[in-house]
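look at this one:
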Amino acid sequence: MREIYSLNEKWAFSGEAADVPEQMPGTWRQVTLPHTWNDIDGQDGGNDYHRGVCYYARELARSDLPEAERYYLEICGANSSADVYVNGKHLAHHDGGYSVWRAEITDALDGQNLIVIAVDNSANDRVYPQNADFTFYGGLYRDVNIIAVPESHFDLDYYGGPGIAVTPRVQGEEADVEVEVYLTDAKAGQELSYVIRDDAGEIVCSARSMADETRTTLRIPGVRLWQGRKDPYLYTAEVSLAEGEKTIDAVRARFGCRSFRIDPERGFLLNGEEYPLRGVSRHQDRWGRGNALLPEHHEEDMDLICELGATTVRLAHYQHDRYFYDLCDERGLVVWAEIPYISSHMPGGRENTISQMKELVTQNYNHPSIVVWGLSNEITMAGGSTPDLLENHVQLNDLVHRMDATRLTTVAAVSMCDIHDPYLKIPDVVAYNHYFGWYGGEVSMYGPWFDRFHEEFPDLPIGVSEYGCEALNWHTSEPVQGDYTEEYQAYYHEELIRQLFSRRYLWATYVWNMFDFGADARNEGGENGQNHKGLVTFDRKYRKDAFYAYKAWLSDEPFVHICGKRYVDRVEDVTKVTVYSNLPEVELFVNNKSLGRKRSPEHFFYFDVPNEGTSELAAVAGACRDASRIRKVDAFNDAYRLKETGTVLNWFDITAPEGCFSLHDRIGDIMASAEGKHVLSDVLKSLAGKGGKPAGMDVDMGSEGMMNMMGSFTVLRLLNMMGVMGGGEPAFTREQLLEVNAALNKIKK
């Protein structure tokens, strides 16, 4: 029987070594896996985290391993390319940092052995991702094992797969379950035994065959369906390989029996019933650990997503840890799974998209939670599709349908992508990443935009793959786009919930992002090295107010939440206090005096609260209660106001004569004036010439879509974001910005 031997302990690590060592290094740093070398420098800003080749070395005595005829080294995640050496002999190379892969090491093993894994996250033009708004953490950041098997065994060589594929098809009250296994060096006379168990471990059906018949169909009577969050019921298929009376190897796979379809009018249907997919996207890292997560970190993430009430999760922008896919099966979250074919199409990267897709589908085929395979994300960021890009997508789409006839394909298109671009006609369903109300545009644009798409393409299911805005611990009573306040984020998501959740035809909606995440190129918002669009902070310790807006709509767990707990000092005589609850009525008390009860079908309750001295607030909804406080102050607390440390010019440096334009005005308003258009055209031409663009994004500054997006930016925000967000030098000096402002000050509104 196969045995799995953990190899996570006793590694030596070096980021300075120049080559593979011939013996165990005595001066290298001792580490335990999972490990990344970018847990600090990949999150602190500046776009200067270490990217290169680092080495891991470990001694291994053959006598410590289980007795077996063959041994495989299993690497569950090495970002982004890696080479395996045993006793100085090169055994394997792998490109792709997010999937499981294996190398047979049997013939290279001696009594005492030195295993070395060289891991490389250097920039190149052939392995995805290379251009994206997140940190490409280097390291052996998931488990490493040795799998010991007999000569005849279930396959361990094909794209890191489990050696078993389970395809259930629901037929009324029954389910026909096709189980196919893949064998290596099977021998005549060997037999296969198939068993399906329910979640209590009881056998519900079984079958036997000779080892040369590797596919069979079993029937589950009175099948219990996998019903998402409502009832995520799982069965287990077990297949054993026997020689005579002796079982020599076995594999197992959990699976769920369910059917689904995506309808262009009714959205997502699970087992024949409408099941709205309302959820979040997730990155796999966290503060102080990078992507080197332990099971308890995955479990905490899952608990928070489920607390929110989400029914779906987009696991972006790469293959996630197999443990998290298991959790999605168990907890009933519908999954969008994808490869890191992102932002910029690389002509030399096609082979890598194919291999990463084969690994994604092969390794995750049995998960009932997965319903769509994502082909790419924002791949037309630099402009429209090219013939090579189109051919790459056609190949991927055809590959997925050959490998998996039970699921659909999709893409996440970027706002600037024309809805008539031919690559959008390749997958089964599509979705768009929009940031109206944050990266330009207005919050009110979402619903009408999707209505127009749906009207022009009524037979093509459309979803929302990303939307969101950033929030840190900044606060205001007058939130505006781009201020990074918790209040603007809450307002933004209230508006998006109203627009998106009321449109039945949207097959799925995903907040970007559930958690703040590492993006070392970002120097904005007052805390460098992170993208702060999360509903929960990077360390998972604070649920932002917007988290509770979604909980009010999606969760059945009764609760009430007062917003603005970190916004205590307020200058206004009457201040707005927002309360979220999934209960129909909320009563607010100020210093134990009721301000009355309010009812709201949309779960958002707004109260005008007299602001005098210190006020203790209490919100009551049913049996639920929440408390907060506010305090009257004469002057605005400057600790609540963002001061950009990476910018050349802050808001308070700018003169803004009444009735005249300034850097504080929106580009769309200024461009409507002939004089203003002349000034800004020169600025934008200069910016484009300098290559100013957001971090990791190759953006066509002159495209019509980009110009439409930029219309609601203030000039200052656009120039700060384009100049500083990439972690390099600002696009303009302080003096140049003040010159632009002076020119705008001369133009009447």
